[in-house]
UniProtKB/TrEMBL annotation:
It catalyses: (1S,2R)-1-C-(indol-3-yl)glycerol 3-phosphate + L-serine = D-glyceraldehyde 3-phosphate + L-tryptophan + H2O. The gene is trpA. Pathway: Amino-acid biosynthesis; L-tryptophan biosynthesis; L-tryptophan from chorismate: step 5/5. Tetramer of two alpha and two beta chains. SUPFAM superfamilies: Ribulose-phoshate binding barrel. Belongs to the TrpA family. This is Tryptophan synthase alpha chain. It comes from Mesobacillus subterraneus. InterPro entries: Aldolase_TIM, RibuloseP-bd_barrel, Trp_synthase_alpha_AS, Trp_synthase_suA.
Length: 254
C-alpha cells in the first residue's frame, strides 16, 4: 500500500492526478487515454467506474458515466482490459467507485482481480470509516490502498482519526457538494488543507472543483497536489489534448 505514497513523494514536487471515466468513448479508448496521461506527466491516474447512482459526481462526470454504461462498461470488463496492458502503465492507477459495485462483484474477488490488473488503490466515497472493515482485510491482503476522504465540514477530531491510519493519500474535498468546476473556493479552504496536512503522514491531495492552472496553484500552496476530473473529461470531449498537457504540467511551475 506504500506504492501510491512512494510514487507521489519520490519526485519531491507537487502532484497532479487526472480523473477519467472508464468506458467513456468506449472501453477501447481507455488504454490510449491512460498512456496519453502518463506521457503528459500525470503522477497517478484515477479511473472512475460507471455506476447508476453516483452520489458524489457532478453533471460532467455523471454524463461520462452514462456514456460509459451505454457502451456496456462493467467492472469486470474494465479490470480485464487493464490487465491486458498493465505492464505498459508505470504510474499508480486508482479506482474511484462506490460500495455497491464492489459488493456486487464480491469484495474478495474484486480485491484480487484489481490487484492482478495492477490497480494500486480505491476511492469509495460512500463507505464511511465505521464500515471499512467490510473491505479492509481483502484490500490489505492484495496490497490495495483504501483512499479516505475528508471534507470542509469534517470535524477536526474525525480528520485526525481518518489521518491516523490513512494509506496512499488523503483526498481533501475542496467544496461542499458534488464534483464540477468552480469559479471560487471557500475562504476556509486554506486553513482546512493546512490542518489536514499537519495531521497526515501521507500526501494530502485536493479535488472537486479544480479546473484551471490558477486554481491548481492556489490549492497546491496548502497541500501536496490536486486531482482534476470534470475538466479532464471536458478536454477529452473537445479533443483538446494540448490544453490538457498544459494543465497537467502546471504543477511543475509551483
Amino acid at each position: 500500500m506504500d506504492r501510491i505514497k512512494k510514487a507521489l513523494t519520490e519526485k519531491g514536487k507537487k502532484v497532479f492526478i487526472p480523473y477519467i471515466m472508464a468506458g467513456d468513448g468506449g472501453l477501447e479508448a481507455l488504454k490510449e487515454r491512460l498512456i496519453f496521461l502518463q506521457n503528459s506527466g500525470a503522477d497517478a491516474i484515477e479511473i472512475g467506474i460507471p455506476f447508476s447512482d453516483p452520489v458524489a459526481d457532478g453533471p460532467t462526470i455523471q454524463k461520462a458515466g452514462l456514456r460509459a454504461l451505454a457502451h456496456g462498461t462493467t467492472v469486470k470488463k474494465v479490470l480485464k482490459d487493464i490487465a491486458a496492458y498493465k505492464t505498459e502503465i508505470k504510474v499508480p492507477l486508482i479506482f474511484m467507485t462506490y460500495a455497491n459495485p464492489v459488493i456486487a462483484y464480491g469484495i474478495e474477488a474484486f480485491a484480487t482481480d484489481a490487484a492482478n490488473a495492477g490497480i494500486s488503490g480505491c476511492i469509495i466515497p460512500d463507505l464511511p470509516l465505521e464500515e471499512e472493515d467490510l473491505v479492509l482485510a481483502p484490500f490489505e491482503q492484495n496490497d490495495l490502498a483504501l483512499i479516505r476522504l475528508v471534507t470542509l465540514t469534517t470535524p477536526k477530531e474525525r480528520i485526525r482519526k481518518i489521518a491516523a491510519t490513512a494509506t496512499g493519500f488523503i483526498y481533501a474535498v475542496t467544496v461542499t457538494g458534488i464534483t464540477g468546476s468552480r469559479t471560487k473556493f471557500s475562504d476556509d479552504l486554506a486553513e482546512f488543507l493546512s490542518y489536514v496536512k499537519s495531521v497526515s503522514s501521507v500526501p494530502v491531495l485536493a479535488g472537486f472543483g479544480v479546473s484551471t492552472a490558477e486554481q491548481v496553484e492556489e490549492v497546491c500552496r496548502h497541500c501536496d497536489g490536486v486531482i482534476v476530473g470534470s475538466k479532464i473529461i471536458d478536454l477529452f470531449e473537445q479533443d483538446n489534448l494540448e490544453e490538457m498537457k498544459k494543465l497537467i504540467l502546471s504543477v511543475e511551475k509551483i
